[in-house]
Amino acid sequence: MDKHPVIEIKSLCKMFGQFRAVGNLDLTVYKGDIYGFLGPNGAGKSTTIRMLLSLIAPTSGEISVFGQSLAINRNDILRKIGAIVEKPDFYLYLTAEQNLRFLGKLSGMDITTKHIHQALDQVGLLDRAQSKVKTFSYGMKQRLGIAQALLHDPELIVLDEPTNGLDPVGVKEIRELILQLKSDHNKTIFLSSHILPEVELIANRMVIINKGSAIIEGSVNDLLNSGMLTVSFSVDDPLKSQTIIQNSALAQSFLGINDHQLHMKLSKERIADCTSYLVDNDIAIDGITSTRSLEEYFLSITRS
Amino acid sequence: MTMFLSVLSIELSKIFSKGRSYIGFGAITILVPIVQAAMYSEGEAYFSLFTQGLQQQFSFTGTFLNGYLIAFIVLQSLLVHVPLLVALVAGDMLAGEATGGTYRLLFTRPVSRHIIVLAKYCAAQLYTIGLILWMSILSMGLSLIIFGPGELFIVSSSITVLQQDDILWRFFWAYGFGILSMGTVASIAFMFSALVENSIGPIAMTMAIIIVFTIVSALDAGFIKDVKYMLFSNHLISWRLFFEETIPMDRIMLSTWVLGGHSIASFLIAMFIIVKKDILS
After folding, report:
1. For residue B272, which of A251, B6, B39, B264 sits 20 to 30 Å off, Cα-Cα?
2. How far is CA A193 from CA A52, A81, A164, A220, B155, in A?
3. What pLDDT score does B59 carry?
């Protein structure tokens, strides 16, 4: 992967009076990343995204995008960014097509009807192009929000809760669209979401922030595979497996059994030891699953 | 410049896509013909009643009820009615974006906030010009067709009778001044629009300030006397000065400066607020 940084945030701080919404935040997003931006409510995610899009002025710190300072080159930078910020709000008295035409013009692009229809088609709204947005459901507005973010073919796409209000089919479509944007067009995607399994499925790097500061940042795989994992062994005889494990040095790692599953809490390095031990004691293993999810990881990190 | 024109055309399209923008045109379209109809059927009686006292001292021949008089009467609405119609749109220019959450759409585009605010302000002013022009077409154009031209009889602190060939240019300047007056009201509503996040607030605040200033202007207390010439509400009907026998240019200039000053100050305050504003909604 090209390690060219697209977003670099250094010592970013935002104060609202005496309240520190974001404090000393550092993060780097590289070209082609799908970067998960996670944190509990009130962690400072929206404030950070708003600063990244110049909706809010930082109290201190520096934001560079495409190697340029946002404070100095705002318009050049915003020309290359498409974004959804929180709720998908539009001009309700205009049609979907009129909204996109206006927004395209404001992006300084020569947007044709063909471009608009392509963007609407991408999110499944082409047949509603001439409908006023006030007739749209929340999910449809969310789709339109994604269409406007992609309309001017931006290099960086900032998506703040893009699957909010979508039905399961819509969530899957947006997930596939995001993956396609990365794989086919090498877009960089900055994705804030509360739906952690979604982030786990599509993000390659992530940061977890809390109280305005980054707690941990890195590759999603590396972070999820570090520390203790919940490992499930599919075994032929769960009761025998339980007895063997409880009489061994692995007893402390035993979590429980159900159906044909033996659940253990193990470090990545000890999975092989445990497997060998079970096999040596005549336990047949059909499969091994590391069940540690981003959700678990997120909770362990934010609670600690 | 291209981007400014682009944003201006978008703002004008937005104005004319909203139902509320037609309330002003609709109200004028309804009100002016009502005044015309009333004057057509009862005008002579109204005129006799109004000039009852004068008729004991002067001899009136012919009729003063003509298109110019109707247009002059309709122009009086520039003090209360038209400001409300102007504030309805100008007060929504920025507050409407805050209410709808669309500041986020606008201010994440590669256009400076200065250009967006300037374009919105110009769009509000163009709307105001359109409204006054529509009023002039209906009140004078239609009245001249219905009632025909004639001498203009005005009673204020003195009686002025303007000859038929001495009127039209006065109306031209009066409507021009009306645009300046209503442009100032639009500017003030626009400034309030930058301060709040709902559209009703700026309209109510603009009307409240006009009413309060008008009441203050009517008071003759010493300290008020010294400053009341600076209140914009005092100058909203200075278009009347164009219908005096000898036009008082010094008073017109003062009104122009006061109204212009209020407009510029309101615009700059709105610009400052929006440029510095953190978009949290």
Report:
1. B6
2. 16, 18, 9, 14, 71
3. 67
Alpha carbon separation from B143 to A28, B34, B35, B150 (Å, rounded): 70, 11, 10, 11
Angle between helices A138-150 and A113-122 (to 10 degrees): 130
Beta-bridge mates of residue A287: A234
Which of A168, A113, A112, A120 lies closest to A141, judged by CA?
Answer: A120
- The residue type of B76 is Q
- Which amino acid does the sequence have at A195? I
Tally of CB atoms within 10 A around A7: 23
For B112, which residue in chain A has the nearest alpha carbon?
Answer: A75
**What count of other Cβ atoms lies within 10 Å of the Cβ of residue A280?**
9
Residues in A whose CB is inside 8 Å of some CB of B read 50, 53-57, 74-79, 81, 83, 85-87, 89-94, 98, 102-103, 105-108, 148
Q: Do B14 and A94 touch (CB under 8 A)?
A: yes
Tokens standing for B242? 């164009």
* Burial state string for A91-108 with b = 16 or more CB within 10 A and e = fewer than 16: bebbbbbbbbbbbbbbbb
Between B211 and A184, where is the model more confident? B211
Four-CA torsion A183, A188, A190, A195, nearest 10 degrees: 0
> Could you tell me the two tokens for B264?
């510029």
| Structure confidence at residue A291 (pLDDT) | 62
SS3 label, residue A63: strand
Pair A48, A209: CB distance under 8 Å? yes
Residue of A nearest to B276 (CA): A57
Of A265, A264, A258, the closest CA to residue A238 belongs to A258
Whether B198 has its CB under 8 Å from any CB of chain A: the answer is no
Tokens (6 digits) for B254: 């003062």
Phi then psi for B19, rounded to 5 degrees?
-60, -40
Instruction: Please compute the mean of the pLDDT values over residues B162-189 and round it to a whole number.
Output: 93
Q: By three-state DSSP, how is residue A180 classified?
A: helix
d(CA A198, CA B273): 39
Distance, CA of A224 to CA of A297 (rounded, Å): 7
Question: Is it the case that residue A253 has pLDDT exceeding 90?
Answer: no
User: Can you give the pTM of this predicted structure?
Assistant: 0.84
Q: Which of A55, A78, A93 comes nearest B279 by C-beta?
A: A55
